[in-house]
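User: For a reading group we're discussing how well predicted structures match intuition. Take Beta-1,4-galactosyltransferase. Before you show the prediction, I'll give you the sequence so everyone sees exactly what went in.
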Amino acid sequence: MRWLGSVTNAHASCLVKLKAELGMEGRVEQQRWLLLLFLVVQLLLMGAFLYQNRHHHSFTSFFHFLIQERPEGREELPFLVQISPPGIRYQDVYSNLSQIQPMDISEEDLPNCPIISPYINGPLKVMIPENLTMEQVVEKNPLVELGGQYRPPDCWTRHHTAVVVPYYGQAQNLQHLLFHLHPFLQRQQLHYAIYVVNQVNNTAFNRGKLRNVGFWEAMQEEDWDCVFFHDVNLLPEDDRNLYICDIFPAHVSVAIDKFNYRLPYRGYLGGVFALRPIHYLRINGFPNTYWGWEHEDDDIAARLKLSGMLLSRPHLLFGRYHMLEGQDPSHKQSPQTPGLLARIHRRWRHDGLNSLGYRLLSKEVQPLYTNLTVDISPPAPGAPVTG
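Assistant: Thanks. Here is the predicted 3D structure of Beta-1,4-galactosyltransferase, as structure tokens, for the group to look at:
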């Protein structure tokens, strides 16, 4: 009887274990079905969203946009040339822009722009014509309005971007940037404007303060939802590098030809930097106290960290830039000095937009940009400061 009882107990124990295992498998199977149902619902919702926004591209075209021919990893390619490297389709930045034509309807009746612009191609040639004149640049961009403003004439865009360019007398670089950047932005179907902040007087270059001035003046004109701070000597090489803002501030120029298309050092934030106005206010703008180009990038990185924000970057294949010849104000690595982070921590809430002082000498609405001429030299003790 004892033997029979022990067998019965063992049998009962096995049944309990078997039921538990079957129950676990049932729950796993149920979770799989729930996950599959969730994915199906997400696809249906996305399809409805694309249809509602009159998006004319299928999911296939979306993935093609992401995976179309790209340079092989770590390949270094020549730019400012007439011939594209074999096996890779590079288009001129002005190709197919003639297809953009105004529609004979009111602005209220314009359709929404598609989520993915049909004019985006991917890798672009960087070719600047010899003896280029500003009149030729204007002629190449007939849809750009005074002040460097542009709105897609055939659809209603959801993206509004101000491009702020700190400037310190690099006239040829500015001309080349305008020649290349205007069609680049038009390909992305953005509403945008370009603001050139021109520093005068013989003080050292102060990129941070010029950025603050450009932001402040731009926001007086339009309710921009994204601001790109753009060095005058960098030309983007891939129009999949979208000039729109995400949920995080973004360092965009992550792969510059001068640095073999890699970041020159960890923590580098020079070149092209983008953020929403709310992000800008949260970090108190940029520092006003760096004359020259020492440690400003370190300061910006510290401000992001201190304000609790993450930094985003595009893929190295998209965030590619050609650097124009000439003085390079934004890409010199300087080692951190002892105590730098501690000093930034003490003063970042008091050194920025809330302490900005400058004199706006003139505001000129040019055909391709808005020119802001400012005096940002340190005021004499006791002198009034306006801004």
